Amino acid sequence: MTATAPREGQLWSRCGGCATLLYRKRLRRNLDVCPECGEHARLAAPERVAQLVDPGSFTPLPERAAEVDPIGFVDVLPYPHRLSAARAATGLEEAVLCGTATIGRHRCALAVMDFRFLGGSLGSAVGELITRAAERALAERLPLVLVTASGGARMQEGALSLMQMATVSQAVAGLREAGLLTVSVLTDPTYGGVAASFATNTDVVLAESGARMGFAGPRVIRQVTGRELPDGFQTAEFLLRHGQVDMVVPRHALRGRLVALLAAAHAGRHTSGGGGQEPPPRPERPADGAARPAPVAEVRDAWETVRLARHPGRPTTLDYLDTAFDGFVQLHGDRLGGDCPAVVGGLARLDGRHVMVIGHQKGHTTGELVARNFGMASPAGHRKALRLMRLAARLGLPVVTLVDTPGADPGVDAEEQGQAAAIAENILSLSVLPTPVVAVITGEGGSGGALALAVADRVLMLQHAVYSVISPEGCAAILWPDRGAAPQAARALRLTAPDLCRLGVVDDVVAEPAPGAHHDPEAAARLLREAVLAHLVPLLDVPRATLVRRRRQRFRRFGAARTGVRAGAR
To answer: CB of 147 within 8 A of CB of 48?
Structure first.
């Protein structure tokens, strides 16, 4: 059981995890985290605020908690008596502390729940205070940070307590519609109506190490189902594995993660939307489909290029995020039960600009490849990518995708979970996403699994990457007598970067260090970084409506009219 942070005046405190007797000052210096076992003690709301915000920056909301007893509830004590006792014990008026502050000099609205006050329960006054914090954020165009600690809705207020789930969720929805970042920080415990509403419907969900979260608590689940629960059930790590949270953060790193998220939101607010006037359209490709020449002279056999694209030493998305981008903050999960390891994504900086980067992740060793399913995304991976794309659009951040997959996961589970529909939804959503999108085929671009991340304003392709409707082996198996014809199929498919540039599918070819990106990954990252910047920067000033219209026109060119087939021809 998690221990509560020691009270003022105590010299020693016993850890709730390992039972070690700890000197209070040492525990405070360690942010009330046991230095022996890492147990995170529960914090009072004022202590949490002091740890997270810039010193002296917190200003409480002027609104006071209302006196509420809507149904005259009495158990052992009348409800008003319980409220009075909670106020005397905590020094707070209610189970949440709301205000504005700066975190890393980035201003935000803040609502921090306190479990000491009637178990952090969500009552009418708590819902009203959090809603007013959200309304202040909307009025002042601020991000909203929620720190949750709650056993659920407040029973003493009956159905009116239940209604607060909708009230606060509506306020969060208003911020999302306005393109303002919402972040929740789950602390231990977060259950019931809070977990099933505003704690998990924000843009980004962080879980502090040691936090537990769920709709029903373990005791209730055991009583209802009669089943024993697995080890680690509802813990932060469990939530991360099942796609429910973006990241698990130890207390000492929590402020830094919030600073990074707020910095990205601040940058997006000041760069989104483009200029007021529409810039001149870029020249269309010639009618014969010829593109500008690829910037590399070396031409390899198509099958040799396929083998280079699959080289195990070729840089992966995480490699590029470590070298071509800065300050990557990875976000996890599709919020529906999965966190596909074949797709990674999150916030990063590119030449000082905040961007959302999403890509397929393979690996270099056999173990890594198996763990990442060889970069073949499940429906959960496509849903995760879509969630991050939509978040980027709301925050006004451009999207960069790095494509490297043999194709989408073809397994039975993926089919049962709606693989086709997940890919279709990504393609449809990217077609109208109101923010710049630059896609780079870095290795294999296989079929619909690749296109699910590559409906973009600019599509780039590394010199030794491939992009095709099917693998050469698959094509050979269908159209040739035996699979040994894969090299011949590779040549027939026109899947190399120069081929696709000539067809107009790809806008530019990114050179690789000889003999390939695997030979000098740092040089490959530098070339990719320069190419992405060259294509992304001009898109930042294009109005959103123009951006979407041109993207749709780009893909309209690939219809039958593009290849010279007349409408009505037989």
So the answer is: yes
